[in-house]
Design goal:
Elements (H helix, E strand, L loop, with lengths): L4 E5 L3 H13 L3 E6 L2 H11 L3 E5 L9 H12 L4 E6 L4 H8 L5 E5 L6 H12 L3 E3 L1 H9 L12 H11 L4 H8 L3 H14 L7 H14 L2
Parallel strand pairs: 1-2, 1-3, 3-4, 4-5, 5-6
Helix pairs in contact: 2-3, 7-9, 7-10, 8-9
């Protein structure tokens, strides 16, 4: 864990310093902090961290500078994991990020209060995982459109896919649902088959399944 290098970007100095302290106490190596997107891009280019944690809204307009910076980081430095923090669940932005592949996370700032969960999420993204805030998952589930591609899934398969969308491993899903990991693996295989995701490698198919889940809103 100590070798995981992180850069932070947020114009709120108190929040940024708090995150830096939290991560450092948890064993991560915070190698730089930025107050705007330009500083963030310079830091990533110079330090090449495993993870960039980025506020979605930063100066000068405080709209989507962080999102644009994240997209540029992904294009120029695809090996760098990106965790975007947002004050609100914004489905369109989350979809854009997840569509760019693994090593991407979208988390509400309110989730940072759970230190252990936040650090675990940061490490999973740094290692190439994809994590979506559960609140966003629920928002998208409640707003699914009528022609739902998930209609073919059973109730249990939908539960498994929802937990996959939160970035949980098969073992994590098994613990959450009180079933065996083998049972989860069977559900995952069934989900991928029913969604027609049978030609790519397993990791990529999981990402595609999550995107299908998120897009069915």
């Amino acid at each position: 864990m100590a070798d995981t290098q992180v850069v932070l970007a947020d114009d709120d100095v108190l929040l940024r310093e708090g995150l830096a302290s939290l991560l450092a106490r948890s064993g991560l190596d915070v190698v730089g902090q930025a107050g705007d997107a330009v500083q963030l891009l310079d830091l990533v280019r110079e330090r090449r961290p495993e993870l960039a944690i980025v506020d979605i809204r930063m100066p000068p307009t405080n709209t989507v500078e962080g999102l644009r910076a994240a997209a540029e980081i992904r294009e120029r430095h695809p090996e760098v994991g990106i965790l975007v923090l947002s004050a609100h669940a914004e489905a369109e932005h989350a979809m854009q990020l997840l569509a760019s592949g693994g090593g991407i996370g979208y988390l509400l700032k309110s989730r940072v209060t759970d230190v252990e969960d936040f650090v675990d999420t940061a490490l999973r993204i740094a290692r190439g995982g994809s994590v979506v805030d559960p609140a966003l998952v629920q928002e998208l589930v409640s707003a699914r459109r009528r022609n739902d591609p998930l209609d073919a899934l059973s109730t249990r398969e939908r539960e498994v896919l929802s937990l996959m969308a939160e970035g949980r491993s098969n073992a994590g899903i098994a613990r959450r649902l009180w079933v065996t990991e083998g049972t989860v693996e069977k559900h995952v295989r069934s989900i991928l088959t029913k969604l027609g995701l049978t030609e790519a490698d397993d990791d990529h198919r999981r990402v595609l399944a999550v995107l299908t889940f998120l897009d069915a809103r």
